[in-house]
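Support case: calcium ion complex. Customer-provided input:
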Amino acid sequence: MKLHRKLLVYLVSLVLSVLLVFGFINYQISNTANLDNDKHILQVSLQYHADILANLYRDKPELNTLLEHLQNKSRSPFFISILDQNSAYILKQTPPAQQYMPPPSQLIQARSGQANVAGQLYLWERVPIPGSPYQLLQIYQSRYADSLLNNLTMRMLITGLIIFWLAGWLGIVLSTTISRKMQAQTNAIQYQSTHDNLTGLPNRLLLYEKLERAILLAKDKSTQVALIVMDLNRFKEVNDTLGHDIGDQLLCQISERLQKLLSVSDTVARMGGDEFAILVTHSNETHIRDTIDNITDALRKPFSIKELLLEAETSLGIACYPQHGEDARTLIRHADTAMYLAKHHDELFAFYDRNKDPYSLKRLTLMGDLRRAIENEELELNYQPKAHILQRQINSVEALLRWPHPIYGYIQPDVFVGLAEQTGIIKPLTRWTLKTGIAQCAQWRKKGLQLSVAVNLSPRMLHNLELPTEIQTLLDQFALAPECLELEITETAIMQEPERALEILGQLHAMGVRLSIDDFGTGYTSLAYLKNLPVDEIKIDMSFIQSMLNDKADAMIVRSIIELAHNMNFEVVAEGVSSEALFQHLAAEGCDIAQGAYISYAMSAADFDSWRNDSNWMIPACPSTNPAEAIVLNLERGQPRDNSV
Ligand code: C2E
Ligand code: CA
Ligand code: CA
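Agent response - structure generated as follows:
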């Protein structure tokens, strides 16, 4: 991990620099201390011998007295000689060949001195022998080089051990603190991604997981599982007439009542909006009917909110394992269908009935319509600007699909992209989106706008090994540089088949295409896993962004994601930035890019061209070979203008 590697490098360089400084100081101290010590030894010994010789000479003042006394007195590391008044040698204690005798010229000039001979240090000093015309010369073969080395090694060893010990502790303390902080942030993100912000109930994702587990268990024990989906009738009216605050409180009170009813093994979840789900495990027919009665009874009593008494009307749809479906996805869909049927027929609840499922029929029709719409080029691609917060300019746009259906009107992309994913239609659909987006981007570039286009990639496409080649062919066809294309992929898409996804993403990244993780925070991917992916950017899901001003937990999540993402060198995009306040807040948090209604909703290419002419957002001009063209593009409020539009 980058942070840990950095920490290690810091600690090792810290230890080495401290060792270096300590080593130098130690060397200086030992050097001076040892030399002073040797000089002192030499002086003491010299004075001692001079005093003895002076006494002997006083009793018997002859040169022989001195010479006799000094016979064989030279012993390593001390060597003694007698000099006359002119500092000429009288007695040379015959030293072995490698030993040193100061030359007479030096003896005349100085009282003491030192010399380095063959890597060995010799100190010498001469003093007059009191009461005689002679001088005593003593040479000392210093051992300070050895002791300096020993001393230094010892000190360095001790210092090194202490520093390594300290650095070790520091490393442990720092890495524990950082790991704890990261773990807490990851836990918070994980909790947030599996729970509903308002009620604290498990969300759709966690319910799905629990349902899958309950089905496995039921399979083993041959029991039943019931999924009850509950929707409030006319909840929109509560929101519109009494305000969202009252609406929120109503949802919270409903969630509390539901939780009180259920046993520990059952789960209440909020599926989104005014839709709840209750998962009943180990159930049988009577138990399910009792639970339904309990729910309807509990919700029949009015809710008291700010001196208002509100009644909540609900519709319940029930699908059971194994009768109505054998996997979580089917059970949820069938419970939903049953709920819509109950609502439609003004009933309190309905069990799923295959014969009354209109959805499957509508689905089939829609599939055929979608196939035709792609062939007849009836789909539309809209573009939503992504604004660089610091530079206050638009560097790229996200391409978003629109399907104007001749009977149902505009169908939401989440609906038909989901349908297309379940069949082979997703391939031609993605091909069309990529081709249209790339062609549009190439056209903008030709007009001199330095824009990139971001295309959403469905999870299914990450299984297609031909995708990189197909994209390269399209880029070549429209002569667009790969850097101008961004691909947005959700975390869950990567997690479905990580190995193959990694291979395809690696190839795309090597081509130069930018990769972005969409809806970040809603899946299970940790940032730690993302660091292995060749990703350039992450997009924080709008559910966190839109509530961050009112919800401290969400604000904390956003801050943590920004901080961690920056640590991993990812750019951070905030989605659903719908107000100036949000924009400013994100700017203060260091977020790089903002996308949302505050800048603009998605619009057709033609509308985008008019929008950019009127908006305050700058679009940088392509570096042009023709300077006059570049100047024209930057006219008026620093905003690009294209005369050909
Ligand atoms: P997404 O990729 O997360 O796209 C962002 C969605 O948020 C878009 O909805 C956009 O219009 C909407 N949005 C942006 N700013 C705001 C805002 O400030 N407030 C609100 N309330 N909404 C905002 P849209 O266009 O309905 O797309 C929904 C989803 O459909 C997309 O989510 C994406 O998952 C999918 N989709 C759209 N186009 C394509 C496509 O070409 N291919 C694939 N595979 N999926 C697509
Ligand atoms: Ca997207
Ligand atoms: Ca998104």
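Confidence is low (pLDDT under 50) at residues 625-645.

Case will auto-close in a few days if no follow-up is received.
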